[in-house]
Structures are given as C-alpha cells and as structure tokens.
Backbone:
C-alpha cells in the first residue's frame, strides 16, 4: 500500500479515536445528566402533587431525613404550603405549591429541548464517525458489497 495512503489512514483513525469518540463520550455524559435532572424534577412534582392531593400541604407531616451515611433523623413539617426550590446557580426561592409545579413544568420543557439537542449532536457525531470509517475502508481498497 502507498505510504501516503497509510499516513492518511492513520490520521483519520487518530481523529476518530482521539476527537470524535471523545466528543461522543462527553455528549453522552451531558445527555445522562439532563435525563437525571428530568427524573429528579418529575419525582419532585409527584411528591408535591401527593402532598396537595392528601392535604399535607396545610396539615403538615412527619418524615425521616437522611443526614448522611444512612443516618436518619425524624422531622416534623408543620406547614408545607410553600417550598424552597433551586432556581439555579445555587439560589433558592420560596414558592407556593402551585408556583413550584409551574416552575418545574417549565424546567422540564427546557431540559427536554436540551436533550433533543444532545441527541441530534450524538447522531451527527456518530454519522461523522461512520463516514470517516467508510472513507478509511475505501482507502484500504475494501469493497462495500461484503
């Protein structure tokens, strides 16, 4: 095989392994993080809805809180009509139950858009990898009809 072709093949393989596959791994990590965020928000929304449906937002409730390493303390919440919600950058805002549900719905929609974007980027990166691998295969003289 021609040495120039071998150099090109090596460059393409290096690009795929060092750049594209690394980009793909980072995109998949971001996608996983966004999916985890959505799951957390949906769990919070379900909990808020349960509080509201059972009247616990006004009457209060008892719970156990994990303070670390599976050590729990008992807590009494006398009024759960407002909650503190993380609105980003480490800032929390006190919201009523209905306001919190509205904010959660907006955040979930935003996260779904971000997930859609990451999925498109992952598909695009996979397509680039496949295209380069097909180019390498052609440079090596393999027939696609195998």
Residues:
């Amino acid at each position: 095989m021609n040495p120039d072709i071998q150099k090109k093949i090596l460059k393409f393989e290096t690009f795929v392994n060092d750049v594209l596959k690394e980009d793909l791994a980072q995109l998949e990590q971001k996608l996983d993080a966004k999916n985890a965020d959505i799951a957390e928000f949906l769990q919070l929304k379900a909990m808020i809805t349960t509080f509201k449906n059972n009247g616990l937002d006004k009457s209060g409730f008892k719970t156990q809180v994990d303070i670390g390493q599976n050590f729990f303390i008992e807590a009494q919440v006398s009024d759960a009509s407002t909650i503190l919600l993380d609105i980003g950058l480490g800032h929390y805002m006190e919201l009523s139950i209905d306001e919190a549900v509205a904010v959660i719905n907006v955040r979930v929609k935003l996260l779904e858009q971000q997930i859609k974007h990451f999925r498109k980027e992952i598909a695009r990166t996979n397509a680039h990898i496949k295209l380069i691998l097909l180019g390498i295969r052609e440079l090596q003289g393999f027939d696609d009809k195998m």
